[in-house]
Amino acid sequence: MTRPHRILRRVAALAVAAATVSSCAALSPDSLPKPHGDPDGYDVVLEFDSVLNLPDRARVVLDGVAVGVVTDVHLAETQVDVTSRIDAGVVIPSDVHAILQQPTVLGDIFVALQRAPESAPATPPLSPGATVPRERTTSPPQIEDTIASLANFVASGSIQRAQNTLIGLNNVAETSDVELGQLAAQVSTNLGDLAANLESADLVLTGLSDTAAVLSSKRGAMEHWFSPAGMLGFDRATQVTSRLSVMIPSIGSVYSGGFWLVPMLTTVGDAVGAVQGTKWAVEDELPRWRKLFTGYFLPQDKYPAINITSIVGPDGRELSDDVHDVLRILGAAP
């Protein structure tokens, strides 16, 4: 073979290799065929407040089975309309609830259709072109917000404060068994006295109920008494009574002598004696209650905290395991 022919063969081989490489470089995931849903199916519009991170051609799942695909996402004035192509023969109830879910932390978001509880009455199926309103849809929580909240919780020292609170409670329980026993005995005595006098408490409550019923029946008259016209009438009646008590001798003698005050003063004296006895009882009990709150409860409430034991999502699933996985991925948990 002559030299020109060898040169032509090499040029042809280089041209074929260049064309092959350029064709491979032009190949991308966007050039691959995408599912457009069942051509014999029907469209359903789902209204969401937010569909952030919802991929193109996302799956539509009902009862754990893919029944359609998202074909269009349109931004409306107050919501986002997600058009889904549902396969032919799939019946979706009209009271279905749509949720944007994520199977794993790094998985793609898909549309999950959830049926109403079994106790709910049966509803007709969704017709082609029907719309599921925002009242029956749930947008996913942002993973960034969840991680930020967990970071703030861990970094704020809440766990350490909760541990210190438990240690303080254990110390109180170990060193104050006698005082706690005395307090429990006193509380038991007070509750026993209350139980022995429940009839008196019932009488008081019955009297208050009857008084409230009478006042309620006289509401119109009381509103008139405390109105500007009623207060003016009270003022005039007081002035007239004071003038008449001086003008009429009999009324004036009783008014000035004060004989009508004797029964009232006797009742007031008895009431003051009862209040005095109550005061002595309160003074006897007050130091114990003060020591209980200032010595035991208030120091422990200085740094309150909350232990999160369970996180339940809108669909009733337990999310605490997923949170542990997220913290482990971030290096915040072993």
From TrEMBL:
It comes from the Bacteria. Residues 1-25 form the signal peptide. The keyword Lyase does not apply. Residues 118-139 are annotated as: Disordered. Residues 40-114 form the Mce/MlaD domain. Keywords: Signal. PANTHER family: INTERMEMBRANE PHOSPHOLIPID TRANSPORT SYSTEM BINDING PROTEIN MLAD-RELATED, LIPOPROTEIN LPRN. This is MlaD family protein. It comes from [Mycobacterium] wendilense. The lineage of its organism: Bacteria, Bacillati, Actinomycetota, Actinomycetes, Mycobacteriales.
